[in-house]
Design goal:
The complex is a heterohexamer, with three copies of chain A and three copies of chain B. In chain A, 23% of the residues lie in helices and 42% in strands. Chain A has three helices and seven strands; from the N terminus they run βαββββαββα. A four-stranded antiparallel beta sheet of chain A has the order 2-5-1-6, covered by helices on one side. A two-stranded antiparallel sheet of chain A has the order 3-4. Chain A starts with a strand and ends with a helix. Chain B is mostly helical. Chain B has a single domain, classed as Ammonium transporter AmtB like domains (Ammonium transporter fold), CATH 1.10.3430.10. Helix content of chain B is 69%, strand content 1%. Chain B is built from 15 helices and two strands. The chains are: A alpha+beta, B mainly alpha. Chains in contact: A-B, A-C, A-E, A-F, B-C, B-D, B-E, C-D, C-F, D-E, D-F, E-F. The structure holds adenosine-5'-diphosphate (3 copies). One adenosine-5'-diphosphate (ADP) sits at the interface of chains E and A.
Chain lengths: 113, 454, 454, 454, 113, 113
């Protein structure tokens, strides 16, 4: 099993979700995050002082999937999130040795979906 | 307050009292005049106090509009709408001082006034109160008409475009309609009845919003590819709710202050009770309607309903009995719910409901004068249900139609022109990121984690 | 309001006046006395109503100050500033009841009053209205002066120190300056003109804030090691914006209520229109200035500009014509933007702009009396632009300078003393974590995710 | 307002009018009537203006209650409480129009009025002002009594149950108690003194809340298995704090408007200063008490203390001297802190402190009339500290007790009945998720990250 | 060492914390998250438009533990969070090769607790 | 590749960012978290009830780096965040088998920076 972590633009979340559903990935967890990457920030000014905002708002998605879903999920995320512009985001894939469903106590591949 | 100043005033006041006493004691004719002057002064003073209190309350409605509009849109555009709201009152104050008042109340023809630029060359009193007090009351109304539009065009309208628009509506469009109805113009001469401005303020503001929002097109993501509306939920219902309370509060000044005089207080009592009853039934009716249709008592709709009741009673508030206010308000509450649905079907995106509340209920309130109005309450002719004479109703209908037509054409031209020159709408990217950062370079809630994908 | 409607009312009103005149002309002695007494009562009643409404509005400004100050600072200190704001009004009510009123309005010498502790032993009326009503109006002013300081010293001042400070300023410092100008003291005798308190309230509050914030030193992280200012952004612009609307609303009571009497309403009309126009041009001028200088129309600055216009018109509001109010307000709006920049260059950290708004514009407004004031409007001498006689301007300059000097010295001593005893500033750790938890053990927004590293 | 008090004022007013009339009649008859009408008209106009301004302010308190209640509960129930608050005013307007006013002020017996349904068949003036103005003032009071209960029963009460309850209290329960005290009923005849409603409004509202919250049982998680109270912290102290300022502001209208007449303004001045002083000492006393007992000056308690002072001074505001107001307010502030603790020991869960503030301090204020009241200030008998005659104190005690008893029984029955039929409490699941989603299908702060496990 | 990630119902956090304390697991980090799983969302309506909320509020717990605490911690979480209903949540277990205490610079098993 | 997760004091974020920049680590993602560790909480009281807050506000940083940057990044974080006091925070290091840049589809070492 793998744990996929993806950082995407906030306004792409709906597209990514839809793409994942089409790829039959139905479960995920979402948090908001501030990202510091290649993308330039923007300037704000407040009461006469300018300052650069270089932590940009991002959405972080965590998806645990079985091995055979990994590539599909990655494809779906890319498809939903890609704009071809800096700031599109990044995907990290971790090994996931164990997974447990709290309700039933099931473990492993059964528990994940 | 300046001590010496107040002493002077007081000295003057007391002196006249002493003089009066002395004169009366030594009686004869001539002295009586002094006395009379004093009573007259107090009566004018009382009316001035009343109208100024009214003006302050109407000014405070600006805060109400600001909170309602900000609360009903997304956090990323909150600073923008508040800036618009704040500056349109500033612009209206200026525009109505320089040109607007003259166009509206200056001597002129049936279409517009032609005197009184910068308030120069006018009599020191107007309608029995000091000119300056009268101006302030009227200027606050003008600001209200201007700010209604901000809500309808929220979350996508360019800021400089808004500043230009707000100067034009308050210096030109609003005063011209105002002249017709309150400034001695043609509708006023026909006996058109709009006591506190369902037409002058709300129809004008509401239909300007309709034109504007139609030209602007819906917000990004408001309607799906299938045309189905999506929810772009307001970011702070408590703020919006506070705004509605402030508006209701201010509306007492709006309607009851429009008597301009107090005399023995019976008219202002009638206006005040009618205002309250219509707001209450508007809120209840809207809640019941939305509950029935969507299964939940939606607070945002109930609040819109109260505003609808208030808009609807604005024209007839001094011409009808309390029971009629109950009916007029309730119908307003129903209209607003159906109006919101109706606009969504037409895919006209009005984020805060400015068109149903101010436009539709403004028309409804104007017509209601022709239905429930009583000639014994100073109206030219009694309404439909009293004898069924359709004269007044006809006049109301005509006035409402012409106003709608004029506003749609005039504001349509204004918005198109602005669009061609400075541009009416911000870029898609700016809209997605929010106008607060794009137009003002600031955030409404620094430090708060706000997480939304719309 | 319906024009024709009001005309009818007025016609009725005038007709009765005519009848009265006629009756009196044909009348006799005895009855007249009764009549006179009644009119006098009503006139006093009307003035009382006006001053009380003014007092309520000025009280409500406390909410405005609270929201502005809270909105412009970080969420972690919001409870703290609100507690200060809330309690300083309580303390001012107490202090001004026990000592302050006597010092300010009691009989005494040119420097201070010496009678009327606990309001005992005074006449039942004052300046033509009941003493208690007069007191309430004055007490609300006193509270305003006290609370201005909270903003300038926000986010780092010790709470007990603040309580002590607020009692001292409202029981001692403010009343003494007030005595000079409104209580029959030396400045009042010279013909110093400060109609509603640009000096008495705003200069006092603003310069007390300047002294306080200088002694306190800047907030942690406000200036980088290179001296460049950092942004510690306000946490709720909507709250601040609501506060500005409330202040503007309350200011009508502040200025127009300062007439103390109503008589025929002409003075209160003038004051009200001037107040509004100066606020409007202040807002516009500040927005344009900040837009030009920093490329974006910053709402927080535009709002500060409106407040600046209001502060500036406070002294001259009854002495000048409306066109002058436009100018005075606009200059105030410009001053405030440059003043904020100026303080940042001096590395004086004033989180909400209390010094530029109240201090600098308080002085500007006081001087403006000497420039635009008209002796025909009850001022001792006409201002510079009317005949160029510099007498009034000189008096204004003197009064402003002495007040600034007195406040800086007196409050400097007070703050130093407090610093030596209970300590003026919280610990660095407490400041970083926020005063809400440190001083009050509570959070302003329980449950909200607030994420900021400043 | 105290019926008998206003009667005295009115009597005085009318007497002078009669004198004037008489005098004029004995001079030149025919014309005299016209003359008298004018001064009298202005006097009535002034009183009407005053009462209407009071009514507007009392209406605005609704916003204050809404913000306080919303701010002191968790974000997940904010829409729900605001909807309740909003709709109970609408329901109260309707209920008090249809039945309530007749029950309260209509002619009837000592227990209740029996005339004036829909305000039909009544005199056009009441207590010297137009009936409609009088109604509006009274209706706003009725709404206040209703909304107090919302806070005590917050975060778990079923919405339809609330609507039913609010109609019943405003159409039946409140008017009956009101009739006893202000409508010429049995307590009024005994000389019971409740100038502006410590009993009529606050005791009724506070004890209705006590009954309601007891029947409802505590919120999920409020008391641990060991009975120890847990904190379910309010989600927005700034909102609550704004609400308190609005309430204080509105209370000036509540108390000072209760004079109903103005005459020369001396009574309204006394009422206004007393109101302010009691609020101030209430706030200070509560802060000191909580500081001493828990080590931190808790803002939420200080604010409750100011409200407690206001509730306590409501009954005696026109009967006592300012120094007594200081004492009454301070004791109120102390009571509220201990009252909150006391309820927690009894495991009665009152989320916003409605019972200590309105219930306990309502009783305290009523008793205070019997202690500090002065017969020279229009009270039937002087209080305990003036001569030690316990008559007035006895009457106050009796009135307070009977009212508490009546409310507890009547509202107990009402709540039980509602519980049996539509159900009083939402399901546990809905409570955990929040009533905003459960009852209204909406969120108060869309997009904000709110993270709390309570 | 292992890194345990658990998604639970927000109102179960206190119970889970208590259960973990009993199991002598005293350290953890908590964030809020939106979850998309088997649990059905609920409908909201706003100004006459209905919409389904299918991202539900969840609490995300991260716990780093030594090998011998893994099962105990999992048991404790299950015990505290289980309701037997859909939406109870899920537990993921990752390998954690390294852990450093910032204060002391300690590494590995010592640093974790 | 490694995924570094660090919990630090919120007011240390700027220092940590600066230290990371010096170490030429320019990309990261930041979220806020509540931490339960050795650090004592503080007491709040609300309306007469005292309660202990034992979930303290922390900032969570996630950094994906190539192998040769791991130690540098850890050093930088420690340097920026260390106060020598309890509550300074903790660093976890996970294996990161895969990383994808959404914009280009690049994978592995290229994608990370
Ligand atoms: N090495 C990294 N470690 C942690 N987060 C990263 C890393 N690189 C990118 N991110 C996250 O992904 C987001 C998008 O990255 P960005 O660099 O803008 O994309 P691109 O690959 O198009 O340059 C960043 O804002 C950040 O949140
Ligand atoms: N495969 C997954 N990847 C990421 N998060 C998941 C996954 N499965 C479940 N979750 C998280 O756990 C939460 C509870 O899962 P849910 O499916 O409702 O539990 P159940 O196992 O009872 O069906 C979800 O809301 C989501 O946050
Ligand atoms: N074993 C752990 N699992 C998850 N998070 C942890 C763990 N240990 C520490 N943390 C996180 O790191 C933060 C700081 O830890 P703390 O124990 O205060 O540091 P110290 O190592 O100085 O005792 C905690 O608040 C928590 O968020």
């Amino acid at each position: 099993m793998k744990l996929i972590i993806a950082y995407i633009q906030p306004h792409k979340l709906n597209d990514v979700k839809q793409a994942l559903f089409k790829a039959e990935v139905h479960k995920m967890s979402v948090t908001n995050a501030l990202g510091c990457g290649a993308q330039q920030g923007y300037e704000e000014s407040y009461r006469g002082i300018k300052f650069e905002v270089n932590l940009l708002k991002k959405v972080r998605i965590e998806i645990a999937v079985n091995q055979d879903f990994v590539e599909r999920a990655i494809e779906a995320i890319i498809q939903g999130a890609r704009n071809g512009q800096i700031g599109d985001g990044k995907i990290f894939v971790l090994d996931l040795p164990e997974c447990i469903r709290i309700r039933t106590g099931e473990r492993g591949n059964e528990a994940i979906g | 307050m300046a001590k010496q100043r107040s002493k002077s005033i007081l000295r003057a006041g007391w002196m006249s009292v002493v003089v009066v006493l002395f004169l009366l004691v030594t009686t004869t004719v001539a002295s009586a005049e002094e006395e009379a002057v004093t009573v007259e002064q107090v009566a004018q003073g009382l009316s001035t106090v009343w109208v100024l209190v009214g003006a302050f309350l109407v000014f405070f409605m600006q805060a109400g509009f600001g909170m309602v509009e900000a609360g009903f849109i997304r956090a990323k555009n909150a600073c923008n709408i508040l800036t618009k709201n704040f500056l349109d009152f500033c612009m209206a104050s200026l525009g109505f001082f320089i040109i607007g008042y003259g166009l509206m109340f200056g001597d002129g023809n049936g279409f517009m006034g032609l005197k009184g630029w910068f308030l120069l060359g006018l009599e020191p009193t107007m309608a029995g109160i000091p000119l300056y007090a009268f101006w302030l009351f009227q200027a606050a109304f003008c600001g209200a008409a201007a700010t209604i539009v901000a809500g309808g065009m929220a979350e996508r309208m360019n800021f400089p475009a808004y500043l230009i628009y707000s100067f034009i509506i308050s210096a030109l469009i609003y005063p011209i309609v105002g002249h017709w109805i309150w400034g001695g113009g043609w509708l006023s001469k026909m006996g058109f009845g709009d006591f506190a401005g369902s037409t002058v303020v709300h129809t004008v503001g509401g239909f300007a919003a309709l034109v504007g929002t139609s030209i602007l097109k819906p917000r990004e993501g408001k309607y799906g590819v299938d045309g189905k509306p999506n929810v772009l939920a307001g970011h702070s219902i408590p703020l919006a709710s506070l705004g509605v309370f402030i508006l209701w509060f201010g509306w007492f000044g709006f309607n009851a202050g429009s008597t301009l005089g107090v005399t023995d207080g019976s008219t202002i009592g009638l206006v005040a009770i009618n205002t309250n009853l219509a707001a209450a039934t508007g809120g209840i009716a809207a809640m019941l309607t939305v509950w029935k249709r969507f299964g939940k008592p939606d607070l945002s709709m109930a609040m819109n309903g109260a505003l609808a009741g208030l808009v609807a009673i604005t024209a007839p508030c001094a011409y009808v009995d309390p029971w009629a206010a109950l009916v007029i308000g309730a119908i307003g509450g129903y209209i607003v719910v159906r109006g919101v649905e109706f606009l969504d079907r037409l895919r006209i995106d009005d984020p805060v409901g400015a068109v149903p509340v101010h436009g539709m209920c403004g028309v409804w309130g104007t017509l209601a004068v022709g239905i429930f109005g009583k000639s014994s309450l100073w109206l030219a002719h009694s309404g439909l249900i009293y004898g069924g004479n359709p004269t007044q109703f006809g006049i109301q209908m005509l006035g409402s139609l012409v106003t709608v037509g004029f506003v749609v054409l005039a504001m349509g031209a204004v918005f198109k022109l602005i669009d061609k020159t400075v541009g009416l709408r911000v870029s898609r990217e700016e809209e997605l990121r929010g106008l607060d950062i794009g137009e003002h370079g600031m955030e409404a809630y620094a430090g708060f984690q706000i997480f939304t994908t719309s």
